[in-house]
Amino acid sequence: MTDKFFDKKYVEYWKQRVGNTLDGTKIPDKKVIDFFLSKLDIKKEEIVLDLGCGFGRLHPFLRKFTNNIVGIDVNNESLEEAKKYRYRELLKGTAEKTGFRSDYFDGVVSWEVYDVVEQKESLIEENRIMKKGGVFLVTGKNNNYHKDDKLAFIAERNAKLKDFPNHFTDVNKIIKKSKKFGFEIIRAYGFEKRGDFGGLIFFDILESKKKKFYQFMLFLKKIGEPEKDLPEICYEYSNTAKEKAKENNFSNVIDFFKWHKEKYEENI
Hints:
By secondary structure, this protein is an alpha/beta fold. It has 9 helices and 12 strands. Helix 6 crosses helix 9. The radius of gyration is 18 Å and the shape is globular.
């Protein structure tokens, strides 16, 4: 990940986005954040990394559990804003190369960040910096969502037409292959449609047969080191978008996105 897209405008966008709606959806609020962070079972003395801390949005919620919160972000403007909060330490870095020593953190939280990073490299790095038994909470976008989820499709289309990084995860594969990455899945939640995350509408992926959903949240417990030969889990386009392009006789997804935008006159 680079800071190419993450400038002052991006910081202001997210500050305005919190608590407000966009395309009919809202980002997770206090109720949602508290609900899921409480499941990390963080102890007061434990050290937690706020990975992709941005302007410090999660800090007040994490501080309910521990005072030992470290923040890292790729963006200098974000880090300046985050200084308003009582982080133990704030550093510039990426999910792929954090710069921290090995076996340091008791927990890592990556909240609405992983869809803009190189996920295989990042999982290896997050495993490295975590203590054995530590838990990694990560959210992202599933590579198979419902074809009738118009808001999810438009969000994917617009991001790609802006050339903004927007990666999709094969959640089913990462669950099946988690031990290869040195993790055990202890919780897995799915959010079926775009907007369900902010609405606290979710299901248990491990107990459900649902394969199509838009967003996910995984709790990964470190049990060992990653293997050398790891499968790909991250993709540039969702399977949903590729299927829609094929149905409309497009071999190139970007060309399909451009055609779709012009045909339906959606704003980018």
